[in-house]
Amino acid sequence: MKELSKITNLNWSEKQIICYVVGKAIPFSDPLTLPVYKKIDYAVDMLTHELIHRLFTQKSNQKKMDRLWVYFDKKYKKENDWTINHAVLYAIHRKIYLTLFNEKRMKRDVRKISHLKYYKKAWEIAQKDHEEILKN
Hints:
Elements: H1 2-8, E1 20-22, E2 28-29, E3 32-35, H2 40-56, H3 62-75, H4 81-100, H5 103-113, H6 117-135
Parallel strand pairs: 1-3
Antiparallel strand pairs: 2-3
Helix pairs in contact: 2-4, 4-6
């Protein structure tokens, strides 16, 4: 969580975040909910993904994020909101993978979602524009 704040210049408002772990579900950020995973590293990757979403919606970050979404909506005006949101998220997640883990682990994530059109496009944007996205 500290690394996410460092990478993004965004702050956590919440003192604690409750995470629900359920038998079977699609992961989501609010309320933070994850299914049980067989591999702990994959669970950490999904948790990181959902925490990045959560960081975007912290009250202390709202004004900054509102300005950023306007900027990214203009820059990627041909893309839908889902793709834009995830392109920004993946640029951050990419940095986490390469800083704390490794490229192989990141490529596994890209491969696992490559059949989903909007996620695939979001990863393509994040790979190409990660420096600019993180700068903004």
